[in-house]
Each structure stands twice: as structure tokens, then as C-alpha cells.
Amino acid sequence: MLSEREIISTLEMLKYENLDLRTVTIGINLADCVSDDLGRFIAAITNRINQQAGRLVETCERISGKYGIPVVNKRIAISPIAVVGAPFNAAQLVEVARALDVAAATVGVDFIGGFSALVEKGMAAGDRALLAAIPEALAVTGRLCASVNVASTRAGVNMDAVLQLGQTIKEAAERTRAADGVGAAKLVVFANIPQDIPFMAGAYLGIGEPDTVINVGVSGPGVVKRAIERALADEPGIDLGRISEVIKQTAAKVTRAGELIGREVAAALGVPFGVVDLSLAPTPNRGDSVGEIFQALGLRAIGAPGSTAALALLNDAVKKGGAFASSHVGGLSGAFIPVSEDQAIAEAAASGELTLDKLEALTSVCSVGLDMVPLPGDTSAATLAAIIADEMAIGVVNRKTTAARLIPVPGKRAGDSVQFGGLLGAAIIVPVRGGAADNRFVRYGGRIPAPTQSLNN
Amino acid sequence: MDKLVIAVLGRDRPGILAAASRVLVEQNCNIEDVSQTILQALFGALFVVSVADGTDPEELRARLLSGVRDFNLEVYVSPYSGGGQANAIAGLPYVVTALGPDRHGLVAAIAAVLAGGAINITNLKAVFKGGDDPRDNIMIFEVDVPAGSDLRVLRARLQEVAHSLHLEINLQHRAIFERMNRI
After folding, report:
1. A35 exposed, middle or buried (CB, 10 Å; 0-12, 13-18, 19+)?
2. Which of A234, A295, A370, B182 has the most neighbouring CB atoms within 10 Å?
3. B140 and A4 in contact by Cβ < 8 A?
């Protein structure tokens, strides 16, 4: 027999606190589709995606109904196209991108990720073609996401790639000028990219992964915020140790819901279950915000002094709760701080409480990095590269994943508003000090050596 | 050994169970199963006991009434022949929750839908705190849905009831509640 407390607590999370399964992502290995004939390659990957993901959406809907928990997005992560599409040039890879977009639409998923390259130590022919193809590929598709890993704790930072990506991001934004540069919102630059991220735009299927795998991304910033508010109301004299415990317990519950659904979807599709990525992934809806958690913790807004400490506590408690609840926690697992996707974070940035510099500080303790940050359209490629380099350095030295998803919005200036639509949200453009200037440092090129942290066994 | 079912009902106060069970010990009744609950100020307990063959239920009832006379209780005693397990068909464990204002005929309407689908209610609990907040007025039905039932049909029928009574009704597999709350 269930207790009424158990039932009511779960119902409240689902009905009033926006608990959902943010994504069920099927990883599909395309390695054996390889061909140097473009038509044959496209036919093979299209078939593979249809075969493996054809039943994904209906299966997720059925299991979502069974447990009464929404599965908001269904997605596909594929082998990095820079590897499996290595024989092709940039124009041919744009054709591959179009085919992937069509395949994603055919099986009904929201996004397909894996237009990706891993170049932290240097670039191969396929990587160069992919980087050259990214701006057009993101402009002519709707569901395709791209990611490039340019740094790792083992390899250091590939500054040639960083500089080139500054230019790639500019072009991706420029080619989608009419939509506020949304092309750049589908491109993430990483340090230490995990192989099993279910979230976009960073999802791809790592080289060490099986033929097919189900990874799930659970969200729940609203659940954590309400748990903190309840604890503050119920426990006078509560301290931060106890607040951390409350977050941890809440994260554990959310993780277990995600694993239940993920394992059942995997079993129904006859593929292995991979990981739960327990990330506090906000949406632009009120009550589904990571920024609001900072307010619940007693800060005026995210960005106020104390925010980095608060985020460190939050991220750590989320990871510990997730690790306790599931043996297979992976992906990013922590708190996202995407500016335009989170209303409270967007408001803090608009009011000036949250600056680009403070965002960078926060990324040293959050689960990802500078995410969905709209910048002035005249920000130079060199400045973008320098911002990316800073972000990569934080990840490399701290042995953590960091990422940069920067959108230099064409034709707009700091303080102007942008609308990306849907989950990508809206925001006011964040100023960059000296953003239009050149930057000699990033032009030296070469590789920033791996830190001593890389020398462990 | 014969079995008897005993029901005890009355205003709740400390000592009821002690008094009733003392009589059962004196009468050599072995308690095989017991469930007790408190609803508002009301105490209720249901016992299945094994007794020596030929024990007279009426005589046991008289002794129980005498043993608990200070508590002013209703006592029911009757032969029990139901076996060790419920005879319901094993099914899939689901939970139906109804959120919303306390409406006349709410339990009857939902129970009728469930009965129509040959669904056994294994536990029913109401949490009515009054007021307009739907969270303060929740009916919880734990049910066994026969294997092979069409859940879409059941869901649609429950939604009709939900609509006519201005309620929100959810049908969820029990595992979601267990997994999230139990280690």
C-alpha cells in the first residue's frame, strides 16, 4: 500500500512543479554506414535512422502515458559526422545535413545531434570539411545540431580550432540573420565533451558507445525550488548543510523517475539503457527556472554576490543525489544556466545584475558553460574566440565539461531584445567590453599545453 | 481450525485495541490478520482470527461486547471462509487520483467506471481538507487493472467523469510512486 504522502508528493512534482522527462535520446552508431559514395552514404544513414528510431516517438508517448510523466522531447544522437563522413567535402556534408534533417522529421524527433567533430589535439580532413560546412548546414536545416570539442584536460586547448570557430559562429549567425542568428544557437563548442549527453545542442554518440543506446535527460528546476521553499517554511533555523540535503533528496527522486522511464523505453525498443543525465534544465516558463532557485536561496538575482557559492552548492547536491539514485549517471548532470532559455536568468542579464564576466565565473562550478548568451552582432570573431578560449581553460584546468553557445546577433546591439522562439527563449543582448576589437592573443595559434592535471594515470 | 471475522467500530480513544485483544487471548483466538484505521474521530478494526472448531460466533461477540463495554463499541462476529488470499484476478497495479472540489457522487462515479472495466479497488483513501485548492482535496484509488485491458478506453471514461464533475483525474502505474519515494 502506498502512503498518501508518497502519492501527493509525486503528484505535486508532476502537476505543479513542472517535473518532466526533458528528453529521451536514442544514440545511433553510423560507423558501418561509411562509404565514399555520397548517395550510398546518405541512403545508408537514412535507413539506419528509420530502422532504429522509427518507433521511438510512439514508444515514449505510450510509456509517458502509463506513468503520467511527460516526455517533452524525443531526440537522436549519431556518431560524429566528421568521422563517419570523413571522405566528403564541405558541400557534400551540407547534403548529409539536409538528409539528417529529413530523417529526423520523418521519425518525428525534435532534434538530431552529431554534426560534430572532436579536434582538441588537431584536425583531420573530415574535421576541416565539417567545420567549413557548419554555417550553411545549420542555416538550411531546422532540427540539426552541431558540436565541436576543441579542448580536453588530456590534450589542452586547440587554439587554431578556437579561432576558426569564432569565425564559424559569426557565419552561422549571419546566415540566419532574419531569425536573430539562431543558427549559432544550434552550435556548441566544448571542452571535455561527454560521449553520452542526451541534451541538445551537444548530443552525439561517442566512439566508445554501443550500436544503439537510450540516454535520458531529466529536468526539474521547479521541483528543487519548491523543495527549498518548503524546507525554509517548515524548518526555522535551517542551514546550508540541511538545504543541500533537501536538494540532494529531491534530485534522487527525480533521477529515479527518469531511470524508470528510460529503462522501460530501452526495453520496449530492445536496446541497452545508457545513462540518466540529471540536469536542472530550465525552460522559459515561470516555475521552471534555475534562476528562481537563486532567489529561493535568498539572493536578489542570479549574478548577485554569493551566486557562485550558491551554484556550487546546488550543482554538487544535484550530482550527489543523482549518483545515489542511479548507478549510471552521465552526460552533463548538474545545473544549466542558459541565459535566453531561463526567464529569471534572462531578466538578471537584462537588468545588469548578471554580466558576462559573472556568467563566466559561474561556469567554473555549473555543469556546462556559457550557454545561449546573445551578444552584440559586431562582436569580432577574435573576441568570440577569446571568450571561448577562457571558457575552455576553465574546463581543462578543472577537469570539467565546459561549453560555449554564443550567438552574435546580426545587426543588433547590447540592450536590444532577441526572440529565438520555443525552448530557446528570448533575452536582452549582453554587452561585451571591447567586443568589436581584435585580439592578438588568440591569433598566435597552436595548442595551449595540457595542464599537469593531465599527467595522472 | 475455524476462522472468524471480527469488526469493531466506535469512537476512538486509547485502550480499545488492548481491551479487544485481551478478550481474544482469553478466548484462545489467534489473530491471523488485522487492519485498523481511524477516520476523523472514529476507530475501526477488522480481524481474521483462527479459533477452536465449534466456537460459537455469537458467544464470542457477547464476550467481546462485555470486555469492551467501557468503550461503547459496535462489534460484529461471523464465520469466515474466504481463504488466505483475495479472489480477485491478479492485474496491473495502477493508481487513480482525483483532484478537485469535493463533489456529490464523486466516489460512486469513479467506482462505477472502474467496476465497468472489471477493475478491483484494493485501497481507497480520501484527503479532503476543504477549500478551493485542488491539492487539498484528493481521492486516491489503488486498483488492479486486468491484464489486456485497453488503457485508452479506461482513460477516456475517467476523463468523461472528470469533465462532468470538474475534477482532474489521473491514471498512473504504481511504479512511478514507488520508485520516486522508496529506496
Report:
1. middle
2. A370
3. yes
Instruction: Tell me how many domains chain A contains.
Output: 1
Regarding whether B138 and B66 lie in a shared domain, the answer is no
With beta carbons under 8 A apart, name residues in chain B contacting A68. Answer: 170-173, 176
Rounded Cα–Cα distance for residues A82 and A300 (Å): 45
Question: Reduced to 3 DSSP states, what percent helix, strand and coil does chain A have, rounded to the nearest 5?
Answer: 50, 20, 35
Domain CATH number, residue B101 = 3.30.70.260
Ramachandran quadrant class, A18 (left: phi over 0; alpha: psi -120 to 50; beta: rest) = left
pLDDT classification of A219: cutoffs 50, 70, 90: confident
User: Chain A closest CA to B37's CA: distance in Å?
Assistant: 13
Question: Which chain A residues contact residue B142 at CB under 8 A?
Answer: 1-2
Nearest Cα of chain A lies from the Cα of B57 at a distance, in angstroms, of 31
Domain that holds residue A65: 1-457
Do B74 and B99 share a domain, yes or no? no
Minimal CA separation from A277 to chain B, in Å: 16
Q: Which range marks the domain in which residue B107 is found?
A: 91-181
Q: In sequence order, which residues have a C-beta less than 8 Å from that of residue A115 and are 6 or more positions away?
A: A81, A97, A100, A130, A133, A134, A137, A138, A144, A145, A146, A147
List pLDDT tens digits, range A230-264: 999 999 999 999 999 999 999 999 999 999 999 99
Mutate to test the interface with B, among A61, A64, A67, A263 (most CBs of B within 10 A): A67
| Count of structural domains within chain B | 2
Last residue of a domain, one of B15, B47, B79: B79
Q: Which of residues 112-131 of B touch A (CB under 8 A)?
A: 122-123, 125, 127
CATH label of the domain that carries residue A232: 3.20.70.20
Asked which of B79, B103, B137 is the last residue of a domain, the reply is B79
Residue of chain A with shortest Cα separation from B176: A67
B171 shares its domain with B109: yes
- Does residue B132 sit in the same domain as residue B53? no
**Hey, are the CB atoms on A66 and B179 less than 8 Å from each other?**
no
Q: Does any domain span residue B131?
A: yes
- Considering only CB atoms, which residues of chain A are within 8 Å of chain B? 1-2, 4, 6-13, 15-16, 65-69, 253-254, 256-257, 259-260
Q: Kindly identify which residue of chain B lies nearest to residue A67, measuring between CA atoms.
A: B172
Are residues A69 and B176, on separate chains, in Cβ contact within 8 Å?
yes
Instruction: Tell me the pTM.
Output: 0.90
pLDDT tens digits for B88-111?
Answer: 557 899 999 998 887 778 888 999
Q: Are residues B41 and B103 in the same domain?
A: no
C-alpha cell at A5: 504522502
Cβ distance A1 to B179 less than 8 Å, yes or no, reads no
